[in-house]
Structure formats: structure tokens, C-alpha cells
Amino acid sequence: MGVMEMNELLQSCGLKCTKQRLCILEILNSADKPLTAEEIHTLTPGTALSTVYRILDKLLEKNIVIKTTIPLSDGIFYELTANEHKHFAICLACHKLKYIDICPIHNTTVSDFTITGHKLELYGYCRECVK
Amino acid sequence: MGVMEMNELLQSCGLKCTKQRLCILEILNSADKPLTAEEIHTLTPGTALSTVYRILDKLLEKNIVIKTTIPLSDGIFYELTANEHKHFAICLACHKLKYIDICPIHNTTVSDFTITGHKLELYGYCRECVK
DNA sequence: AAGTGAGTTGCGAAAAATTCGCATTTACTG
DNA sequence: CAGTAAATGCGAATTTTTCGCAACTCACTT
């Protein structure tokens, strides 16, 4: 996602396009894993922690980001809803995450429900820990 | 899950079988949705809040419970890992949860990874809100 | 380009959530 | 049923998140 698209995204939600918001979107966009509020704050120098929380709240409200926990990790994490489709497998022994490509949800349907997105986590043991 | 099974579960993990722990397992077992630490505390009269947190920590450590967030709801929730297979669909408009039976994960395999469990959430719109 | 106003931010303080220390109690072992 | 390690209660400390308010900035208008 480029700056232009972020700009449009914010405007289409009725949110002003500030440099703090662009910065946080940028960070979430380039992250290869969900981040905590504290981590995001560290990566946005000059931005107040309370502002980070307020921006995240707005983005949550607009369904642009999603809040999540990671099994066996502490804290609350945020990630772009758009990135959410990067599913992952979590090793119960070493606690490492492994991103996976597969998506078994393709043709899934649920009665009386229109599916627009989903989240999948697999638990188990990585090759190293199985030994 | 009956009291006997909970007893065995705790013992097999090397955890002492206290009435506080049984009470919390009981609560989680009969809950039809994930609960917050505060909710669990309210349902275990006479137990200190710090004890609730300590018990939940132990249960997390032993993979008996799982910590989770619920999209569009505030707070952190706990549920039995065993209950986790009750997948749900979340309406992005009215924020209601709908438990679903389907599980498209059946024969899924991932290279270099032994799958032992999973978690699936579907997002979208319920029949009411689609209108 | 300067003017305007709603929405945003920074800062510190307040509130809420979680963890910790320590004295006391409890569950399991022999 | 005595001994011991583990668990609990209580309150205080710490961490996380929210809030109030003055100052600032974006987007829109002349």
C-alpha cells in the first residue's frame, strides 16, 4: 500500500490525513508481524503514546486494523486488516510463528451470514521441536 | 468436562487441585463464550483477583486455556483450549457473535509443521445487517 | 495565499488492568 | 497427621490505557 492509497483510505473513512496516521499505517503495512501499541510508539518518534492509542482506536473503529493476541506471547497486538490474510502457525514448544500460504477457507459458506474476511491460526509443533 | 476430569487434568500438569482452580475451570467449561478476567473474578466469589490472574497464567502456561480478543469487543478474553473448536462468525455491523459448526480445516497440512489445533474466526454481515 | 473551524495532537494526570511481595493457608507425600 | 512445597489473600506497586484541555493542523473557503 503506497502513501496515495493510505491517503484515500483515510479520507474515505472521514479521517483527516495527518503525518502521525500515515506513519502508523506505514509501520503496520511494512511489519511482518502484528505489533503492540508500545512497539508502534517506539517506531513513531515524536508522537505521544496517547496519540498512538487514539489513532489505533480510530483505525479499529473503521475496521482498518484488527486487535489480536498471539498465543504464548504476552500483550495485545495490532495489524492491518488487509494483512490479516497472512495466516500463521504457532509452535507450542518454541513459540515461534511461521507464516503460511495455505488458506482452506476458499469456498466456505455459512447460512445466514455473508463472509467478508477471516482469521486462521494453526497450533502445533515445528520441525525442530517435533524431534 | 466433569470434576473428576478436571482433577486429572490439573494433576497431569503438576498443578495442585484447589477449589479456586476447579471453580475457574468449571466456569470456563460452562461458559458459552470467552470471558474476561474480571468476569471470571465476579463468578468466583471469595477468590482474590490476583489469584484469578495467577490461575489463568498457569492454565495458559499449560495450554489449558487460551487468551484471545474478540473483534469489535473491548478487553482480553479467556476460554478453554478445548472449547476453542467452537468457531464463530462476527458481524461487523451489529458486533454479534454466531457460533458455527463448519470446520474447513479438516485435511489441512503444512510443510514442516505438525498441526494439533487451530482457531478460526469469520468476519462479515449477519442476515439482519445485510438488509 | 490568508482565514476559519472541526478534528487532532501533546502533555500530564487519572483510571483501569495486571503483577508482585510476603505472611498465612492448603494440598499432597510418606 | 506432620512436613513441605505450592497456592492464596491482601494490599501495594507497576504497567497499560484513557481522559481533559490547551495548542496545533488539516481541509475547505474566500
Provide a descriptive summary of the structure in words.
- The structure is a homodimer of 131-residue chains.
- With 131 residues, chain A is of the alpha+beta class.
- Chain A has 2 domains: 3-80, Winged helix-like DNA-binding domain superfamily/Winged helix DNA-binding domain (Arc Repressor Mutant, subunit A, Orthogonal Bundle); 87-130, Dna Ligase, domain 1, CATH 3.30.1490.
- Chain A contains 5 helices and 6 strands; from the N terminus they run ααβααβββββα.
- In chain A, the strands form 2 sheets. The first copy, chain A, has a 3-stranded antiparallel beta sheet. In chain A, strands 5-4-6 form a 3-stranded mixed beta sheet.
- At the A-B interface, strand 2 and strand 6 of A face strand 2 and strand 6 of B.
- Strand 6 of chain A pairs antiparallel with strand 6 of chain B, so a sheet runs across the interface.
- Chain A binds a DNA duplex (30 and 30 nucleotides) through helix 2 and helix 4.
